[in-house]
Design a protein that fits this description.
Helices cover about 30% and strands about 20% of the residues.
Length: about 350
């Protein structure tokens, strides 16, 4: 399997949009015309008022996965039935986590002009700005992001990284990205055991590359905030996501049937979710789940999502062992073509997975 040392260029980008953090700080700039770009057609469906359902979101003890069949069964249940779980006892020390939180908050607290020095370029979504904006008339998300490719180091574009002379960001990101990549690799290895795969590399290769999406959700000053979303409903078009809650404000909600269930992160845990790529390679055995982010009326929310994928030069597609004597549900696609598909699309349900689904006729 070929592994390109550098990522390809010109994989696609996103249209520029207003800076939401700046709009929240200066609400007089949020004109009715501009506000309409963020308003959904209708009031948002309310989340399920069901504490029992919230408590049912699986919790997996990472430290017990190797030697305890019961914990492995919890992971299998989470991947098959929920698509989400909270990973506790993951072994990442407090220091790199707290350093990461501190430096991410420090970045978003910079003056807008300083952050703009790391603004996205037209050919790629890396940098500071927004993603998945493909037209001037689509509804926008009430959030800003800072997106970096982190692993392997040869994929990094240091134009978008704060220089070592001005902050500790590079050091903290390097430490945190390696730790999360380790956790993702071991979770995928445990999934391979649960699936009965003879070669665990068929799953662990989905953590060979990594990118970080740092999210800033400012409070929304508009009285129509119940029609505003921080992130549109979508499933993650990656292998495995590990989410770090930086600020204490909740906002993540997952789709469970017809309900939206709030996720209340356990202190010290990472919120993990199965991505579209894992659903694809398992031929639908493990399922990616739609989720969204709501915004608070008074407080900011900050999070860091570590996305894990295969390296360029690889191919995504259902594993033969997962197809068995049946039919493949998804077509095979190169990582490069898949990334181009993702970047050129807007966040809308499971539209990326639908685009690679094989439609059978009877």
């Amino acid at each position: 399997m070929e592994c390109w040392e550098k990522k390809p260029r010109n994989l696609g980008g996103s249209l520029p949009v207003p800076n939401v953090q700046d709009l929240a700080a200066r609400p007089d700039h949020l004109t009715p015309t501009l506000l309409r770009r963020y308003l959904r057609p209708h009031h948002l469906p309310l989340p399920a008022d069901d504490h029992h359902a919230m408590a049912m979101i699986p919790v997996v003890d990472f430290a017990r996965l190797i030697d305890h069949h019961e914990e492995a069964a919890k992971l299998r249940h989470a991947c098959e039935e929920w698509g989400f779980f909270q990973a506790v006892n993951h072994g990442i020390a407090d220091e790199p986590v707290e350093e990461m939180k501190r430096d991410v908050m420090a970045f978003f607290n910079l003056p807008l002009a300083d952050k703009a020095a790391f603004a996205q370029q037209p050919e790629w979504i890396e940098g500071y700005g927004q993603a998945f904006v493909t037209s001037e008339d689509q509804t926008l998300d009430w959030s800003d992001l800072y997106f970096l490719t982190t692993q392997p180091p040869s994929y990094r574009d240091l134009r978008f990284w704060p220089p070592e002379t001005s902050s500790t960001f590079r050091r903290s990101m390097d430490r945190y990205s390696l730790e999360t990549q380790r956790v993702a690799t071991e979770l995928l290895r445990a999934m391979a055991r649960n699936l009965g795969l003879r070669d665990a590399d068929k799953m662990t290769r989905l953590a060979a590359a990594q990118s970080m999406r740092m999210n800033y959700y400012p409070p929304c000053p508009a009285k129509e905030r119940d029609r505003v979303l921080g992130v549109s409903p979508h499933s993650d078009a990656v292998g495995l996501t590990l989410l770090l809650q930086v600020s204490p404000v909740k906002g993540l909600q997952i789709r469970r049937g017809d309900d939206w269930i709030p996720v209340d992160p356990i202190p010290g845990a990472l919120v993990a979710n199965v991505g579209d790529v894992v659903e694809m390679v398992t031929n639908g055995r493990y399922k990616s789940i739609e989720h969204r982010v709501v915004v608070d009326a008074a407080q900011e929310r900050v999070s860091v999502a570590a996305f894990h994928n295969a390296t360029f030069g690889s191919t995504y597609g259902p594993l033969e062992e997962m197809v068995g004597g049946g039919e493949a549900r998804y077509r095979s696609i190169s990582v490069e073509d898949y990334v181009r598909l993702v970047v050129s699309s807007k966040l809308q349900g499971k539209n990326i997975l639908d685009a690679v689904k094989i439609i059978t006729t009877t």
